[in-house]
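Isopentenyl-diphosphate delta-isomerase (Chroococcidiopsis thermalis), 349 aa
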Amino acid sequence: MNLPTNLPAATESRKADHLRICIEQDVQCQSVTNGLERYRFTHTCLPELNRGDIDLTTTFLGKKLGAPLLISSMTGGTEQAGIINRRLAEVAQHYKIAMGVGSQRVAVEKPQVADTFAVRSLAPDIPLFANLGAVQLNYEYGLEQCLRVVDILEADALILHLNPLQECIQPRGDVNFCGLLDKIENLCVKLPVPAIAKEVGNGISGEMAQKLINAGIAAIDVAGAGGTSWAKVESERAETAMQRRLGLTFADWGIPTAECIINVRQAAPNIPLIASGGLRHGLEVAKAIALGADLAGLAMPFLRAAAESESTLHALAEVLIAEITTVLFCTGNANLQQLKQSQTLQRVA
């Protein structure tokens, strides 16, 4: 594989920029929300349950989890990112929740940073998801590179992230998305682990989800609009006035997360489905599950907690689990399957 000699340094620098900007700057969507505020649970004043008996366990891609939570893909490739990933892995293992890592392209181009992603020793029992940009299949990546990132993580699945808007705005972005569906299909046939299609904050429609599933994708992460805006993140890194303007113009572009969940679930009733995109607390997690998701992914809350301290990260996991449990208790549902079937979530706006 022939890569420009300056590419590894550029990729590593970009990773450091992304981490710094997400931790320090306000890069959230402003005029668009995740859509979950339009839904409200019907309160049950007499739940006929013991709160201590509520069961949050679930399975995803054949793996049992203690709660329907995913630490969404965030980072890797720098010293600080390695510290954050190790903290996240320890917490994921402790609470038996799933974890994804950030794009591992930098580890392919610069193998000496691979250990910033390699957290399996800290999280032996949970689902770990490797990660590469699907568009790299048009830039000399193939099965070999995908297997490499899966091996680095000893991953249970490979996330192929889809980020056309981000690539449009990113300096020297990879914008050739032609023929990718066929390449994804060819890859899925050969991969020894399931492939998960994930947007990065602009959403996946029901129609697009069906095309991806037909191509062999085993799970969908909608990653809808309403949370971190990667257009806005890239506008903070802009090298030209045009890039900065594009990032600001499209800062609120995308399909709200709630809409994505409903549309993908209608199109594909049985596909393993992850809801992410602007989820910030356990009440929103429970809403996403009630709308049809199997897992709920959070990135920014976990990132900022992990950057602060291990104790802050544990406190966040504890409160998320307590919030989800409280929803089930106050809607009279003993487990997640009952919550999905209960019809206690109603649209109010």
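The chain is about 45% helix and 15% strand. The first strand starts at residue 39 and ends at 41. ok done for today
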